[in-house]
Specification:
Largest sheet: 7 strands, antiparallel
Number of strands: 14
Distance between the termini: 28 Å
Strand content: 35-45%
Strand order of the largest sheet: 1-4-13-6-7-8-9
Number of helices: 0
Radius of gyration: 16 Å
Order of helices and strands: EEEEEEEEEEEEEE
Shape: globular
Structural class: mainly beta
Length: 210
């Protein structure tokens, strides 16, 4: 299962404005990582994993995850399997699910690190060797100052970070690297229990820089 980082219209609510975070500061051309993309189109290297009721497409310069009003549905896009040693991956998230999980994660066969927002709470979690999921940190999510999410591995330490502009980063959590020589990144949405409303999430950029 892609974790609840492989997580959408708002019914009855006015849509929240999408933050303008880092448009001038971040240039994907300058970040020449293997996964880097502006997400104006869906690149061939990203695999879509979603139920038939979920629409994942590009629209108005972002990747749009349209989720149905159905419990326990998930839709993600997934990168190829590669080493994540001494690498980072940053996601520019401009809209999250109102009710449900919007997340990104790094996965190996039996381990994973995730960061995402559910019910207005931003969380960083880790699971090692199929053990229980551990919450490393949690706090209220701010759509402006937390518009960018980044996972970064260096010197056998994995950092969970957020940013308002994609330039200046603040640490959310940190953990010992669990062995990231063969991993994939995923990001998308998961509807929760009960009867969630039809909703959508938007992602504008994926940057994969050293």
């Amino acid at each position: 299962m892609l974790l609840a980082v492989s997580a959408c219209g708002r019914l009855g609510f006015e849509p929240a404005p999408e933050p303008d975070a880092g448009d001038a500061a971040i240039d994907a051309v300058a970040c020449r990582g293997r996964w880097t993309t502006e997400l104006e189109t869906l690149p061939a290297f990203l695999e879509v994993r979603a139920a038939a009721s979920i629409t994942i497409n590009t629209d108005a310069g972002h990747l749009r995850f349209a989720m149905p009003p159905t419990p326990q549905q998930e839709g993600y896009v997934v990168t190829p399997i590669e080493s994540f040693v001494e690498r980072s991956a940053a996601l520019h998230v401009t809209r999250i699910l109102t009710a449900g999980l919007t997340s990104m994660g790094l996965h190996a066969t039996e381990s994973a690190s995730h960061m995402g927002v559910d019910a207005g709470v931003l969380r960083a979690t880790v699971q090692v060797d199929n053990s229980s999921v551990i919450t490393l940190a949690s706090r209220a999510y701010d759509p402006v100052t937390d518009a960018w999410w980044r996972l970064r591995e260096t010197s056998e330490v994995l950092y969970y970070e957020t940013s308002g502009d994609g330039v200046v980063w603040k640490q959310l959590a940190v953990t010992t690297s669990w062995g990231v020589t063969s991993t994939y990144l995923d990001f998308g949405c998961h509807t929760g229990d009960g009867s969630p409303q039809a909703d959508e999430a938007h992602v504008e950029r994926l940057l994969d820089c050293p």
